């Protein structure tokens, strides 16, 4: 971790230089720091096993067209690659980058540790802005400037936009198309777009630090859906979460079917936990995958029963016919959605889309049905 005094001096020098150039004075309607200048921005991320993407993600933050002071805080969890080394190399050559240890690897706990480091860096400045980014995400160069302006104009506590998945390999590109299609994750605004305005949640998010502290930060008992839960509590406290489709962040999806299945399985598990805690949040989007899995299991049972009956003359076919209903209906839906999502895509991407959609749906559904064990629910409590 870089020395706090050195960091504060570097930040103050940057702010003084910006003021001397005349570009640190907020325009009318813009958010202001406690000294009437542009607020201090701290970009925070929880990273582990991010070697292929981390450098690009951090450089995108450091290259922001932001005239005010800016720091980057990386909460590094246990990794099997060079993630920690890359993070520490950045911190060694740039005083704006800081590394904190996240021994559990938990995203919620890591984000809270990063925000606490922001408070240590900036003191009690109530104008601070916390920008969340991700090791798999690339912020466009004007992201911070635009988000802070929207925050000042709307009075929102949270501002965010769209996740724009971009793949490098045919499989990644298929995942990217599926994630941006209603048949993949659902027609949520930060996946498929929409009008600017108040929203339930946004991708990543740019926060007033005071709003984070007011609601107690991220819930350390949640391993997934922690962003949705945080935005829910901010809204319940009277804050506004604002969606702006002009804020678009590039996201690199998982590279293999196994990693994709693990990601969606864990997401489904923790979404079940959210529904358990807040039953009114249950919706068709969340319940459709587990219903699909149950339908496919029922079809399998009916199929086995049909085969057994077929061995006993006269051989009835009703069971076998019923067993085929759910798989055939689902196959038609998947193939139709794949054809639509694969328009103007290379053949290699089109061929992988059905597989990607099935993996996403089934992994989410199985995870949701399994749910989170009592041990897992209590393991992350502080």
Question: Roughly what fraction of the amino acids lie in strands?
Answer: 5-15%
Helix content: 40-55%
Find the structural class using helix and strand composition: alpha/beta
**Any idea of the CATH class of the largest domain?**
Alpha Beta
Biggest beta sheet summary: 9 strands, mixed
- What is the molecular shape? elongated
Structure description:
There is one protein chain. The protein is an alpha/beta fold. It has 2 domains: 4-253, Spore Coat Polysaccharide Biosynthesis Protein SpsA, Chain A (Alpha-Beta Complex), CATH 3.90.550.10; 276-379, no CATH class. It is built from 14 helices and 9 strands. The protein has helices spanning 4-21, 54-62, 83-93, 107-122, 143-154, 170-179, 189-192, 209-214, 226-236, 257-277, 284-310, 318-341, 347-370, 374-379, and strands at residues 41-47, 70-76, 97-101, 129-132, 137-138, 158-165, 197-198, 203-208, 241-251. Strands 1, 2, 3, 4, 5, 6, 7, 8 and 9 form a 9-stranded mixed beta sheet that branches. Helix 6 (170-179) packs across helix 13, helix 10 (257-277) runs parallel beside helix 13 (347-370) and helix 11 packs across helix 13 (347-370). The relative contact order is 0.11.
List keywords for this structure.
382 residues, alpha/beta, Spore Coat Polysaccharide Biosynthesis Protein SpsA, Chain A, nine-stranded mixed beta sheet, 14 helices, 14% strand, elongated, disordered N terminus
């Amino acid at each position: 971790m870089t020395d706090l005094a050195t960091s504060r001096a570097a930040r103050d020098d940057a702010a003084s230089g910006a003021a001397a150039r005349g570009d640190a004075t907020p325009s009318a309607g813009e958010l202001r720091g406690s000294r009437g200048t542009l607020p201090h921005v701290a970009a925070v991320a929880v990273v582990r096993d991010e070697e292929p993407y981390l450098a690009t993600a951090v450089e995108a933050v450091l290259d922001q067209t932001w005239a005010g002071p800016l720091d980057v805080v990386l909460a590094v969890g246990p990794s099997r690659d060079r993630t920690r080394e890359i993070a520490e190399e950045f911190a060694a050559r740039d005083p704006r980058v800081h590394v904190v240890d996240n021994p559990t690897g938990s995203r919620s706990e890591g984000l809270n540790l990063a925000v606490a480091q922001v408070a240590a860096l900036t003191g009690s400045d109530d104008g601070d802005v916390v920008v969340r980014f991700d090791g798999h995400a690339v912020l466009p160069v004007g992201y911070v400037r635009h988000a802070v302006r929207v925050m000042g104009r709307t009075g929102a506590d949270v501002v965010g936009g769209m996740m724009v998945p971009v793949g490098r390999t045919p499989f990644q590109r298929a995942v990217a198309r599926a994630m941006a299609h209603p048949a993949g994750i659902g027609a949520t605004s930060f996946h498929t777009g929409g009008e600017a305005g108040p929203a339930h949640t946004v991708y990543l998010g740019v926060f007033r630090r005071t709003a984070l502290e007011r609601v107690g930060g991220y819930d350390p008992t949640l391993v997934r859906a922690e962003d949705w839960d945080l935005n829910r509590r901010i809204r319940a406290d009277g804050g506004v979460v604002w969606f702006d489709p002009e804020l678009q962040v590039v996201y690199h999806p998982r590279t293999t079917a196994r990693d994709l299945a693990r990601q969606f399985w864990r997401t489904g598990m923790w979404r079940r936990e959210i529904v358990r805690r807040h039953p009114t949040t249950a919706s068709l989007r969340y319940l459709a995958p587990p219903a699909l899995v149950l339908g496919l299991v029922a079809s399998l049972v009916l199929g086995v029963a049909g085969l057994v009956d077929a061995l006993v003359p006269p051989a009835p076919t009703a069971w076998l016919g019923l067993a085929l209903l759910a798989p055939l209906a689902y196959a038609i839906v998947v193939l139709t959605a794949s054809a639509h999502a694969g328009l103007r895509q290379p053949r290699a991407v089109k061929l992988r889309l059905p597989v990607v959609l099935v993996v996403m749906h089934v992994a989410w559904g199985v995870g949701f049905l399994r749910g989170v064990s009592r041990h897992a629910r209590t393991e992350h409590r502080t």
